């Protein structure tokens, strides 16, 4: 007896709808994602005509002061903007090494008192290599 075999049906999976769903999900995640810079202060540096680039950026400490007078030490925003909390943060970051260079990056619209407070904290802790960060001014038009 000879039996006939049924021809096998080829099973195709339609991937078009799956690809559409994946692209819609991708689009959804791209549109809804927000990028925040919560650990950094926005500082518009003042301009200076003379100056020199800083060396040893990896060893230096950086105090950033926003236009509102908010302090940040090495991109860590301090909860309080007073002398005591600034000194505590500098001591923690320096690990007792006051020979490290310390740069102060203050916004151009920062109150002078905030800059003096940062310099006072550095002086009380014994930092001797102090620099003020600026951007190079545009040359005057002839």
TrEMBL record:
<dbReference type="Pfam" id="PF02472">
    <property type="entry name" value="ExbD"/>
</dbReference>
<keyword id="KW-1133">Transmembrane helix</keyword>
<protein>
    <submittedName>
        <fullName>ExbD/TolR family protein</fullName>
    </submittedName>
</protein>
<dbReference type="InterPro" id="IPR003400">
    <property type="entry name" value="ExbD"/>
</dbReference>
<keyword id="KW-1003">Cell membrane</keyword>
<keyword id="KW-0472">Membrane</keyword>
<feature type="transmembrane region" description="Helical">
    <location>
        <begin position="12"/>
        <end position="31"/>
    </location>
</feature>
<comment type="similarity">
    <text>Belongs to the ExbD/TolR family.</text>
</comment>
<keyword id="KW-0812">Transmembrane</keyword>
<keyword id="KW-0813">Transport</keyword>
<keyword id="KW-0653">Protein transport</keyword>
């Amino acid at each position: 007896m000879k039996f006939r075999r049924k021809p096998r049906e080829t099973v195709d999976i339609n991937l078009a709808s799956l690809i559409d769903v994946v692209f819609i999900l991708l689009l959804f995640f791209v549109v809804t994602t927000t990028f925040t810079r919560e650990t950094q202060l926005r500082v518009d540096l003042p301009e200076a005509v003379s100056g020199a680039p800083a060396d040893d950026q990896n060893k230096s400490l950086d105090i950033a002061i926003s236009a509102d007078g908010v302090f940040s030490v090495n991109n860590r925003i301090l909860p309080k903007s007073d002398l005591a909390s600034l000194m505590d943060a500098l001591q923690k970051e320096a690990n007792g090494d006051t020979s490290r260079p310390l740069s102060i990056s203050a916004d151009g619209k920062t109150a002078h008192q905030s800059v003096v407070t940062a310099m006072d904290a550095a002086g009380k802790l014994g930092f001797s290599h102090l620099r003020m960060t600026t951007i190079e001014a545009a040359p005057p038009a002839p």
